[in-house]
Structure formats: structure tokens, C-alpha cells
Design brief:
Chain lengths: 256, 256
Amino acid sequence: MPTSRDLPAPQQAFPDIIHMPLFRGVNHLELESLLHHGKIQYLPRRKHLFRQGDPVDYFYIVCSGSIQLLRETPDGRSHTSDIILKGKTLGKTEIFKSGGSRQQSSAIALEDSIIVWFPAEWLKNAARNQAVALNLLMSLSHYSRTLEIEAVHKRTMTASQQMACFLLRLGEVHGLDVHHFELPYSKALIASRLGIERETFSRCASSLKQHGIEVQDAKIVVHDSARVQRYICECCSAREDCTAHQKLAAKVLAVA
Amino acid sequence: MPTSRDLPAPQQAFPDIIHMPLFRGVNHLELESLLHHGKIQYLPRRKHLFRQGDPVDYFYIVCSGSIQLLRETPDGRSHTSDIILKGKTLGKTEIFKSGGSRQQSSAIALEDSIIVWFPAEWLKNAARNQAVALNLLMSLSHYSRTLEIEAVHKRTMTASQQMACFLLRLGEVHGLDVHHFELPYSKALIASRLGIERETFSRCASSLKQHGIEVQDAKIVVHDSARVQRYICECCSAREDCTAHQKLAAKVLAVA
DNA sequence: CGGCGTATTGACGCACCTCAAGGTAAGTGG
DNA sequence: CCACTTACCTTGAGGTGCGTCAATACGCCG
């Protein structure tokens, strides 16, 4: 829990917070009073925001940095279920469950981050605001959609195809040159995010050369995105709007 | 689209409709006016309610019968992404997407069914009602949760374990004797719902005998549910609340 | 009877996992 | 400066779970 010391109100420390999708259409006065209940925390790299199994008492906004959602199994395996980029939120899904629930994964800072905490009850109250409720509905349905698409991709695409799909959109999501960029994460992290083993990741990386993507250390060069596109869509479930799907899928990296 | 003939209002034809979770907490007068916009359709077994790729213009309530959500890939494979039982709804997720969207799967009646249609706009208006919005939020977050759990299960459980998990909850969801019941669906349908091949289903069925479940034609006998439970949870991601997970997972069959 | 829908069983292949062995680069201590 | 560790990645050999293809069997109906 953040320190109880008197901290600046979130909207003073992070003026951007009022432009988040969650608050779109909310009038300024209401927004002021809503944001008043937030507490700010500085979370250094590698530190936990919460742990798998903790009770769900808070809703979080990632103001800067990024958070890894890591799910661990009793037998020691783990899987990165999501990477939450700055500007996105954490915990929407859990809070509207009836009855107390537990965190399904641990949240760990991938880099030094700043987080705003809100009590779970706050979000429920905020949802009484028509605009907020609508924004939440849009965000939740978008999230559901990305989960559905991810499931389809897992079922229909090979590891190489999933990786190509991921790489193709990664540059886009991070605002990089989509044809030539550096991986913003370690390969191990990406492998974990894709739900494959590091070794498989390595092997896929080299095999991707023949499909138009070159991976040299952390450098990615997309030689022919149309060809890569075709490779990905080979057995994709919705050839006609595969691009849209990938955009969505890539945003799983970045669900609002 | 249902015939434009003058049909009874949904709340007259299906008094139960007002007791759906979606309408919990909505006052009677508002409910009357909301339901007024619904159209009733009789949908015979094997008929399509809509097809994959159709524009999403309606929101549906399944008043009786059940609907299969079938997703097809261009290479001819298909997967049952969900089975919607009577009393549940269809299309919540799509309607709150910004911009027009397409159906992600086809909806086919598994048995003779009765469906109430609402225009997509109706749902957006209904969401202005605070109680409806809250119900939708709960339902969507529940749905997201089931998707997450399903993904975890796919990653961590073998086909046999998933099948055991499914069978263990199937009786429960359908209100049958959980130790001795008949499959309410064909084996091929269940295999498709689990995302495995029929042949694999067959093989798993026989292998389950050694774990405490006997499958004889359509008859299921659960000899020792505690043992089955242990078998399922072996590499489940949340041993301590695995039961809860399974309950949720089983409800994927039946998302409200 | 033949045709059809449904289920089972066997043989085989493939994609990915697993385990083990390097290999490179950055950081640490002497 | 070098030896050592640690983190991260790559490569190879072998195993396995499930998909794929093919054959067979059973019940049902026209």
C-alpha cells in the first residue's frame, strides 16, 4: 500500500491522467473529486505491485513505466499473461466480480514505474457515473475481444506465426519504425508473453528469416511486411480482417 | 431478422425474462419499456441465428433452447467457442466496441430455440440505466475471467485433464446427478468445445477410467470426485482455488 | 439393402517441450 | 588487468501429446 504521507493529488502529479480513456466524457468537477481518492506510489524495477493470491482491494493506473503480469503454477512454471504499458489500468476485471476475489497473477515492475492506487470501492462508485460506466464497458469488451483473439491465435497459428504477428505489431504499439527497430523487452520476456519456451523462441527467430523477418540480437528487420502478413494469415481464422485482429492482438500488450 | 408481424412483447411470452441477471435492480416501469423493443424469433435446430462475418446489429437473449457459437477457419477447421444455454445472452461483447464490427463466429441452434432480438442501439441505451450498466459490467468481467481461466487451462492441462474438468462440472451446470449422468451433447460437440479432435476425445475418454471417471457411450460415471479433482489440479495454476476455477470454467458453457 | 451420422482404434508425423551443453557480454572482486 | 560470476541467449538430441489419415464398427432411416 502506498505511504499514507500527504502526497500530491494524482491530477497534479500527472496531468495526463485526466485524458485517459477511462475518464473520457466525465465533467471536470466530478473528475476532480474522483481523482481525489487516488494515492501515488513509486515502484522500482523488479518490485511487486501485488502478488498472485493477494485479495483484490485496489484498482491501479500505470502513470509511467510498465508492469508485467506474471502467473505462476505450483510446479514452478510461469507465464506472462500481460504487459501493462503506461497509461493503462490494472484490476478492472477483478473488481466487478461478486464477492471477494484473489489476484490471478503477480504484478511486477518491468522498469521504474509510478502507479496510482484507488480503492476497489472507488471504481464501483465511479461506475455510477454514466460516462465512466460506458468507458469501462468499452474497455472490458475490448479486453474480452483480445482474449478471444489470442485464444484463436494459439489454436490456429504456429509459434513462428505468433511471433511474427507479435513482432509486426510491436513496433507499431511502441511507436517505432515498424521495419527496423530494437526489441523493447528481453527475448525471454517476449517468449513468456507468447506462452512459448525461450528455446522455441530462439529457433523460431532464426526460422523467421525465410519469411521476411530478420532477428539479429535485439535488432528486428522486417524486410517485406506484406509477405510476413501472408505468412501469418495462412491459417488465421479470419483472413479478410486479419490485420484488424493483429492490431487488437498486439494491444493485448496494452489493454486500456 | 424476425418477422415484423405483430408478436407478443417478450415479457408476455417469457415472463422469466424479467428475472435475468441483466435486468436485476431495474424498476418495473423502465423494464417494461426496455423489453418493448424486443422481437421474438423461433429458431429451429441447426438453423443459423447469424453467421461469422455478419455485421453486429443485434443483441440476443436465448429464452429457450441453446446456441452453439462456431468459429470457422478458412482452411476448413472449426471450433465451438461457446455453448449458450437458455437464459443467457449473446453479443454483449461486440456491441460496445467502437465502430461497426463483424460476428466472430456463427451462432447455430443446437435444438429448437426461442430467441429475443434487440437492436444493438437498444443495449447501448439500456446501459444508460445504472443498474443495467452495473449488471453488464459484472457479466463482462465474469466473461473475461472465464476466458482467462480457459487460457490457463489450455496451457497447463492435458486434454484428459481438461476433459475431466469439463465432465466434473457439466452435471452441475445442467442440474444433473454429478456422479452419474448422460452427456447432454454429442461427443463431437464436446470435443469441439474443448478444442480437441474427436479421436483425442475418444482416447482421453478411455484413459480417464484410471483416474476415476468412466465413460460408457453417453453415460458418465464419476467414481471418486475427490480423486478426479486431484488429477485435474496436478498442474493447475491455482491449486488452492482450483475448484472455484472449474466452476467458472464450467460456466463458460453458460455465460450470462 | 445401401447410405449416413457417430464413435472407436491404430499407425504415423509434427510442433513444441525438456534437458543438457555451450557461448557471449556485462558486472564483480582480487 | 585477469579470473569469476551472473544474466541472457543459442544449439543439439531426444521425448511426448496431440493432430492426421485411414480403417472399422455400430445404429438409424429411407
